[in-house]
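User: Can you recover a sequence for this backbone? Please restate the input before giving your answer.

Assistant: Of course. Working from this structure:
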């Protein structure tokens, strides 16, 4: 189309005249800026270019970043990556050449965006998230996004979502809320990792994380303050008991003192909480990640102590007994993956006791079929949502609906390999998840999410609602 044809088609002469008249009416002190902003709104927004690159995540491992361009500007997104990759989740495309980044490069995924995905999306309206995601799903044609890579598809999906919000001139959480059919935005209760164990640390603690949940705060800002203060009191407790080198941190930012039992970890967290003065307002959660120490049908809580490992296996029933006692002795309100990902029987039995929230992470892998099964069998009562296990914003919204229809809690989660992208903060607010797990209240990749929640709370002003005690049912 020639420029003249374009001008005629979009009636630009008339729109320019309108912009000038509007500037005069508004008595603007800066007519050029006013007219250019006015004209920007008049331009129909379409995706004009999608450009991806390889960057590094918080572990120093390659991941995908994308710049999506519309007539309104450039919108950037990058995707996280996790350690636990299961057969039910969308596939992250990695090059596999061991000589380059130990096989972890993502240049094929980047190429897929720059060529195939870009070609398919250029010209589309960025507000039609469902169509954009569907176009990529159709292009990929595989069930687990193996062809283009879930890392490629998700990066573009998120960038398009940001572009859609800009096109509508609304905050990102508002746009996602519209896409989800939700009208009330809710600030989630943060679940801060404070102690790291399991495969994330060199200590002998078998479980992956001990977390704190400030459910008794009145605002998110207060919850963040409680989390930060507890974290620093914990640092002091650890220094007193284990020396300063106990304060090194693991992948998710939790301290990694050389403790060997769950109770030892819970005791120091309880001590830190008591030093804050918020005792009744902060609850404790644990991510057991029991799949990592399940051997056959037994659990080896000493799997990280070479001289004890394999000598004292626990049965599923023993594990249930242990959780029962822990829930009595500590303010535990949430247990994630208490059993192996295929140990449905003990998960069901434990969940039915109703002692605390039972979160399905490895059990579900954010997979709709596994979520449906777990709802039907009451194998857990909360979804850990990892968006890169699904691969598009639209499908993430769908699984949240599924979980909410089952009256479950929803925890929007980061991955151990993160970037400075704060998308999950807006997502958590928009879908009314009630809970977000984004690591410790330290380190840039975690604070990108928590700080974004501060901004959203500030922007919502009087309208801001913190999930607080309704963290499971918001
Ligand atoms: C988890 C997550 C985040 P990963 O188990 O909940 O901590 O770990 O990203 O390695 O799956
Ligand atoms: Mg987990």
């Amino acid at each position: 189309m020639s420029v003249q044809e374009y001008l005629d088609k979009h009636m630009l002469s008339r729109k320019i005249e309108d912009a000038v008249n509007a500037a005069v009416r508004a008595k603007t002190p800066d007519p050029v800026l006013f007219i250019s902003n006015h004209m920007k709104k008049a331009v129909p927004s379409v995706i004009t270019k999608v450009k991806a690159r390889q960057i590094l995540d918080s572990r120093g491992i390659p991941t995908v970043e994308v710049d999506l361009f519309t007539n309104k500007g450039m919108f950037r997104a990058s995707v996280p990556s996790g350690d636990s990759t299961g057969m039910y989740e969308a596939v992250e495309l990695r090059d596999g050449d061991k000589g380059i980044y130990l096989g972890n490069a993502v240049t094929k995924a980047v190429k897929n965006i720059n060529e195939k995905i870009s070609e398919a999306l250029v010209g589309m309206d960025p507000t039609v998230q469902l169509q954009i995601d569907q176009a990529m799903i159709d292009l990929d044609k595989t069930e687990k996004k193996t062809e283009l890579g879930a890392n490629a598809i998700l990066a573009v999906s998120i960038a398009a979502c940001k572009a859609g919000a800009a096109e509508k001139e609304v905050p990102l959480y508002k746009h996602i809320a519209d896409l989800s059919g939700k009208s009330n935005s809710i600030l989630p209760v943060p679940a801060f990792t404070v102690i790291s164990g399991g495969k994330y640390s060199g200590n002998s603690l078998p479980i992956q994380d001990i977390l704190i949940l400030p459910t008794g705060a009145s605002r998110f800002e207060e919850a963040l303050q409680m989390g930060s203060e507890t974290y620093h009191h914990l640092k002091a407790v650890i220094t007193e008991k284990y020396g300063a080198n106990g304060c090194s941190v693991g992948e998710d930012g939790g301290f990694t003192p050389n403790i060997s039992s769950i109770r030892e970890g819970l005791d120091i967290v309880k001590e830190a909480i008591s030093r804050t003065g918020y005792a009744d307002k902060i609850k404790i959660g644990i991510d057991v990640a029991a799949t990592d120490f399940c051997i056959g049908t037994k659990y080896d809580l000493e799997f990280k102590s070479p001289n004890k490992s394999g000598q004292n296996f626990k049965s599923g029933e023993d594990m249930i007994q242990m959780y029962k006692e822990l829930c009595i002795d500590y303010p535990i309100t949430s247990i994630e993956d208490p059993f192996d990902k295929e140990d449905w029987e003990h998960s069901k039995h434990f969940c039915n006791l109703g002692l605390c929230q039972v979160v399905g992470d490895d059990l579900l892998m954010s997979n709709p079929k596994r979520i449906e099964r777990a709802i039907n069998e009451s194998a857990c009562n909360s979804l850990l949502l990892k968006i890169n296990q699904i691969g598009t914003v639209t499908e993430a919204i769908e699984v949240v609906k599924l979980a909410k229809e089952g009256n479950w809690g929803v925890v929007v989660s980061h991955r151990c390999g993160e970037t400075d992208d704060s998308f999950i903060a807006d997502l958590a607010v928009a879908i009314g998840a009630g809970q977000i797990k984004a690591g410790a209240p330290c380190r840039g990749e975690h604070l990108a999410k928590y700080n974004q929640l501060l901004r959203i709370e500030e922007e919502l002003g009087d309208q801001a609602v913190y999930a607080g005690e309704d963290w499971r049912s918001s």
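That completes the design. Residues 3-42 form one domain.
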